[in-house]
Specification:
The chain is built from 12 helices and 22 strands. The chain has 457 residues and is α+β, with helices and mostly antiparallel strands. The strands form 8 sheets. A 6-stranded mixed beta sheet has the order 1-18-19-22-20-21. A 3-stranded antiparallel beta sheet has the order 2-3-4. Strand 16 and strand 17 form a beta hairpin. Helix 8 packs antiparallel against helix 9. The radius of gyration is 21 Å and the shape is globular.
Length: 457
């Protein structure tokens, strides 16, 4: 339950953001059951309903192949692979998030079948996922993009098996780090070290081949070895996602994270929001894919893609950029966006706003329910801005609250304990319970309520 000074935002949180998250986790994306979509939405569902999230992620694991690969979608019980390379990486993110919420490691030993009828524990499913992607590499030793990663419309960049995704390599690094942590919780030291070694190998390769000389991360290399999302490209010179995921994954040091985000702000942000890429493509490119067929400023082709902006919101919060957090929120929410206000559905977030290149369509919304925007906005606000950070040791808080959300009161259930947190903009930073300053894990009271005061500058 959230109560902020913004009454419209309060109504959006309860019930609409929660409802859209629940529905996305159940049937993403209406016309089909997208594998990555359900996995990512289920990670977000864990924020407020971890038991249901667990049941749904186990269902999703049952569609995974025994070699660790996961299909793009399944429909009417039938699997459709569609040559996408990223689907399996989202499993680790979802399971890690649920474990941190529930604190029950026995969940990992539950048996779940693969789609061929063989069976493995949840933990073994995750090991298979990471091992598959580690062996699925192309140019420069990075992870293959194949028929697309998160960007479905970069579907022609890697069909020959040489093209690679810098973004997916960063996401793989994050999965390795999380699985290493899970392995240590279980006492599986050999697996923990193996995951750390894989993560370090990929980190070094991203450091060597993933950075543009202007100080930001490129997006991909196609089968021809051509860079996508580099300064020398005529169009599509910079993409948002690699910059935000550099922060979310921790793959590089803070200085480089901030530099990459500064480059993204300078190139991609304007009055409507932060575009997913720029400059927009104006002609079809057979070495990239169908995103270049879309009109400039539409969705993946230079539009303000809200799912990507929600990752930016989380990254800005992690970097402590309170002014940018406030700006992000006011551009993501249609009733706060000065260009979009009055033009979008009042109860859900859409996937994108049409960019400045679209003429009379400028600022109009894209499709609504078939998106992870609401789901990730909810998670970004709760886990990164209000910063309820569940860990195996307990609940921690390191909020990045903008000044205009001072006075917010958030209630969260965590392992049978109710945390009621009041945020006040006082000019200094302190977290206290009953007047006692807290550094680290919050006190825990099973079946009870813990009232927390967060004061911030």
């Amino acid at each position: 339950m959230k109560k902020t000074p913004d009454k419209t935002l309060n109504k959006r949180f309860c019930p609409w953001l929660c409802y859209q998250t629940n529905m996305g986790s159940r049937w993403a994306r209406a016309r089909h059951n997208g594998y990555r979509d359900i996995a990512s939405d289920t990670e977000c569902l864990a924020v407020f309903n971890a038991p249901l999230a667990w049941e749904r992620i186990k269902r999703l694991l049952s569609y995974q192949y025994s070699n660790g690969y996961a299909p793009r979608t399944f429909k009417d019980g039938k699997i459709q692979d569609k040559n996408f390379s990223d689907c399996t990486v989202w499993l680790t993110f979802a399971v890690h998030a649920i474990l941190c919420e529930r604190g029950d490691l026995s969940l990992l030993s539950q048996p779940v079948p693969y789609n061929d009828g063989s069976e493995a524990t949840v933990y073994e499913h995750l090991l298979a996922s990471v091992n598959f992607l580690y062996g699925f590499r192309g140019l420069h030793g990075l992870i293959k993009i194949w028929g697309g990663d998160w960007n479905d419309c970069m579907n022609l960049a890697g069909l020959s098996g040489r093209g690679v995704s810098v973004w997916l390599s960063i996401a793989f690094y994050r999965a390795c780090c999380q699985l290493s942590e899970i392995s240590r919780w279980l006492g599986e030291e050999e697996n923990a070290r193996s995951c750390e070694e894989k993560a370090e190998e990929i980190r070094l390769l991203v450091e060597k081949y993933g950075w543009d000389e202007k100080g930001y991360l490129i997006y991909a290399y196609n089968d021809e070895g051509r860079k996508i999302g580099a300064h020398e490209c005529r169009e599509g010179q910079i993409f948002l996602n690699p910059q935000t995921w550099a922060v979310l994954s921790g793959i590089t040091k803070r200085e480089r994270q901030e530099r990459a985000m500064d480059c993204a702000e300078a190139a991609l942000s304007y009055d409507l929001g932060t575009a997913v890429s720029t400059p927009a493509y104006t002609a079809f490119d057979g070495g990239i894919g169908s995103m270049t067929r879309k009109a400039p400023g539409v969705q993946e082709n230079g539009g303000v893609y809200l799912h990507a902006m929600c990752w930016k919101l989380a990254a800005d919060a992690l970097l402590g950029r309170r002014d940018r957090v406030a700006w992000d929120v006011n551009r993501i929410l249609p009733f706060r966006n000065p260009v979009v206000a009055g033009r979008a559905e009042p109860y859900v977030l859409c996937n994108s706003y049409m960019g400045r290149e679209t003429g009379y369509r400028y600022g109009t919304p894209g499709q609504s329910w078939r998106t992870a925007s609401s789901q990730w906005f909810l998670k970004a606000m709760v886990n990164y801005v209000f910063d309820f950070t569940p860990t195996m040791a307990g609940m921690a808080l390191r909020p990045c609250m903008p000044e205009n959300l001072g006075g917010s009161c958030v209630t969260k259930m965590f392992r049978g304990c109710t945390y009621r947190v009041l945020y006040r903009h006082t000019g200094y930073d302190r977290i206290s319970v009953r007047g006692k300053e807290i550094n680290g894990i919050l006190p825990y009271k099973k079946g009870g309520t813990v009232s927390v005061l967060v004061e911030y500058s």
